[in-house]
Amino acid sequence: MKWRGFCLGILLTCSISLQAQKYVGGDISMLPKYEEAGVVYRDAAGNAVSDVLAFFKQEGLNAMRVRLFVDPSKDKDKAVCQDLEYVKQFGKRIKDAGMQLMLDFHYSDTWADPAKQWTPDAWKALSNEELYVKIYEYTKECLRQMKEAGATPDMIQTGNEISFGMLWGTEAEAKNNQANRCYINSPEANWTRFITLLKQAGKACREECPQARIILHSEQTPKPSVLTDFFDRMKNAAVDYDIIGLSYYPDYHGDMKSLETALNTIEGKQYGKEIMIVEAGYSYAWPIGNSFDYTKTYPYTEEGQRQFTADLITLLNKHESVKGLFWWWPEDNGNKNVTYGWWNAALYNHETGKPYAAFYELKNFLGDNTSVSMIETPAIAALNNVYSMEGMLVSNNGSTASLPKGMYIIGKRKTISH
């Protein structure tokens, strides 16, 4: 009997290990603001959800991404509000909910993307040599404080959509000095500068959060040659990282064939890195961009958005190297009363507060890795049986309420007792 319990524990642990290798969730950086404003989140039946993170976890999501700005008070955009204190508090909530935390460093006071990688106002007078020190010290201090707050990141993006570099200088300087903008990574001096910044940020990550995995994030999904040039340079310069992060929005990046070509090309290069789609989205009503019209395949309807999500997951699950899928701003909700902007690819109905159908597709990215059905024991299949991770039956009432905090198996699913 002891041997049987031991074997069961080993099998359960292996099953959970497989699950832990894949992550699905979203960049939910605005959730605390919606909650503060009294926005009501509901389930499919229309019932109000008292704990949104617990609901996300219940519906199969296991990781969340949160962005961090240096000094968002410098920006008038109400969605640019995530300073260190905000992220520490919210990050702890995510970790306490039993989910993985991806921290997305925007090394800027505002949105950092391919067209905007502006140096924070407080850093604008620094020389390159001083910036190398500053990015290291800033990254290290942020991570130190997050650890102390109980919000240790599991994955860290050292920059957001950084195909063309970061910390370009101020926007005003760029406009006044078009000929000498340093953000185009050519000539080689600009690549050297950029790579030094990345190495300094990565060094801080390894020192403060050695268990966390570092992500390098590019949005050049429809341009495989640009992607491989970027990651070839990272490899040749021995930049220390673990995961290739990609953005995929059909409106900007084309159809799924473009995405599949990018994945095949990256895999063919054998970089030895996992791949994650760290930003994805498709509209339920109106375009989010004007570059590509996918509506003949996926109409701008709730069903069109759901089918897009289902087909995206089917594609991603054909690639063993793809280990993550994160929807961007899925929590956008209640904009009649809250003016944080409007994201047409949200996963919540702004009229009803209920999730769109695509929300319920996301968990399918994980497949059935939590299943323990390979254990042919009638008792283990009983839906009310609760097992410890060692394979011991600890309850048969289907509840972990009276059990110590930890991870358990109920029926065929893992759960966390708080």
Set out the fold topology.
Layout (H helix, E strand, L loop, with lengths): L1 H19 L2 E5 L3 H6 L15 H7 L4 E7 L14 H13 L3 E7 L21 H21 L6 E3 L13 H6 L11 H21 L4 E6 L5 H13 L6 E6 L1 H4 L2 H14 L4 E7 L21 H15 L5 E7 L28 H5 L16 H4 L4 E3 L4 E3 L10 E5 L2 E5 L1
Helix pairs in contact: 5-7
Strand pairing plus helix content: what structural class?
Answer: alpha/beta
**Major sheet details:** 8 strands, parallel, barrel
**Mean pLDDT value:** 86
Secondary-structure element order, as H and E? HEHHEHEHEHHEHEHHEHEHHEEEE
Helix content: 25-40%
Structure summary, number of beta strands: 12
Number of helices: 13
Proportion of residues in β-strands: 15-25%
- Unreliable sequence segments: 1-20, 370-383
Distance between the termini: 29 Å
Radius of gyration: 22 Å
Query: Strand order within the widest sheet?
Result: 1-2-3-4-5-6-7-8
**Shape summary:** globular
Tell me what the structure shows.
The structure is a single chain. The protein has helices at 2-20, 31-36, 52-58, 84-96, 128-148, 171-176, 188-208, 224-236, 250-253, 256-269, 302-316, 357-361, 378-381; strands at 23-27, 63-69, 100-106, 155-157, 213-218, 243-248, 274-280, 322-328, 386-388, 393-395, 406-410, 413-417. It is of the alpha/beta class and 418 residues long. An 8-stranded parallel β-barrel has the order 1-2-3-4-5-6-7-8. Strand 11 and strand 12 form a beta hairpin. Helix 5 packs parallel to helix 7 (188-208). The longest helix is centred in the first third of the chain and has 21 residues, at 128-148. It starts with a helix and ends with a strand.
